[in-house]
Amino acid sequence: MAVLTVTNLSKTFNLGTARESRILDDISFEVSGQTFVSIVGPSGCGKSTLLNIISGVEEHTSGDITLTSDAGGPARMGYVFQDPRLLPWRSVMKNMMYVQDDQSRDTVARAERYLDMVGLKKNADFYPGQLSGGMQQRVGIARAFAVEPDLLLMDEPFSHLDAITARGLREQLQDIWAQSKKTVVFVTHDVVEAVELSDRIIVLQPGGLIYEDITIDLPRPRRQSDKAVATLQADVLARLETLKAMAAAEPVAEPVA
Ligand SMILES: Nc1ncnc2c1ncn2[C@@H]1O[C@H](COP(=O)(O)OP(=O)(O)OP(=O)(O)O)[C@@H](O)[C@H]1O
Ligand SMILES: [Mg+2]
């Protein structure tokens, strides 16, 4: 698990040019322990930019980010992308091992265990082209968990999948996460998905401010068919209705206190 602290983080693209645009504006939050946090917000509000800054792929303009493992040392990070990003010329198992630092028997056994958890152990020798999109995404998720990251970053991993497959994968993700001790930051534009998965939802509004920080206190495992889950989903959706209008309007409205 990890301790992630984001303090007064801002990001401006094309700083000092005519195309200058501020995407994240003074964002602060902390995540630690076995917590599943979703970052939710309309398209273009800076969710992927935030994740990319946390992962170190993108630089921030001002503010601070600190990330340590909860044991105190540097944190390991894993990343699950919107598309599975498997190497087509490598088998499933070789894709799993490609991201590992060592190829020891223990590491192989761990990769096999996670592949088994997503129901694909029997497909270890298949090539990505022989798998459906949902199966490929499951390999991507198993691969990220198998590096045993302290912090797992996920950017809309189910958005390319049909509703039934996405639902099945959300259930699988919850089960794997419950068994592993990981801090997860999960980006989605889908409030319904966020309520099902998260302990906490950080809502970004256009202009890159935090609009709401919502605690989701429902028992697990949660299933889409649970009445309490559906009720809370409807409630959070209703609370965020105004964001739709904000996304269309300029200038950006002030955040709700
Ligand atoms: N390298 C870049 N240079 C300039 N602008 C960028 C760059 N990367 C992203 N942006 C802009 O930053 C804004 C936020 O992009 P980002 O990809 O973080 O949004 P998002 O919330 O993830 O959206 P979506 O839900 O559509 O994935 C967008 O307006 C985008 O055009
Ligand atoms: Mg994005």
Relevant terms:
8 helices, Rossmann fold, 34% helix, six-stranded mixed sheet, transport, three-stranded antiparallel sheet, alpha/beta
Which of globular, elongated, flat, extended, rod-shaped describes the shape? Answer: globular
Low-pLDDT stretches are: none
What are the bound molecules?
adenosine-5'-triphosphate, magnesium ion
Number of helices: 8
CATH architecture of the domain at 1-76 and 190-252: 3-Layer(aba) Sandwich
Provide the CATH topology of the domain at 1-76 and 190-252: Rossmann fold
Organism: Nocardioides flavescens
Pfam family, one: ABC_tran
Protein name: ATP-binding cassette domain-containing protein
InterPro entries: AAA+_ATPase, ABC_transporter-like_ATP-bd, ABC_transporter-like_CS, ABC_transporter_ATP-bind, P-loop_NTPase
Structure description:
- One of its GO terms (molecular function) is ATP hydrolysis activity.
- InterPro entries: AAA+_ATPase, ABC_transporter-like_ATP-bd, ABC_transporter-like_CS, ABC_transporter_ATP-bind, P-loop_NTPase.
- Residues 4-231 form the ABC transporter domain.
- Keywords: ATP-binding, Nucleotide-binding, Transport.
- It comes from Nocardioides flavescens.
- It is a single chain.
- The protein is α/β, with parallel strands linked by helices and 257 residues long.
- It has a domain at 1-76 and 190-252: P-loop containing nucleotide triphosphate hydrolases (Rossmann fold, 3-Layer(aba) Sandwich).
- Helix content is 34%, strand content 25%.
- The protein contains eight helices and nine strands.
- It has helices at 47-55, 92-98, 105-117, 133-146, 163-179, 191-197, 227-239, 241-248, and strands at 2-13, 21-32, 36-40, 62-69, 77-80, 151-155, 183-188, 200-205, 209-215.
- The strands form two sheets. Strands 5-6-7-3-8-9 form a six-stranded mixed sheet, with helices on both faces.
- Helix 5 links the parallel strand 6 (151-155) and strand 7.
- The two termini are 31 Å apart.
- Bound molecules: adenosine-5'-triphosphate (ATP) and magnesium ion.
- Magnesium ion binds at residues 47-48.
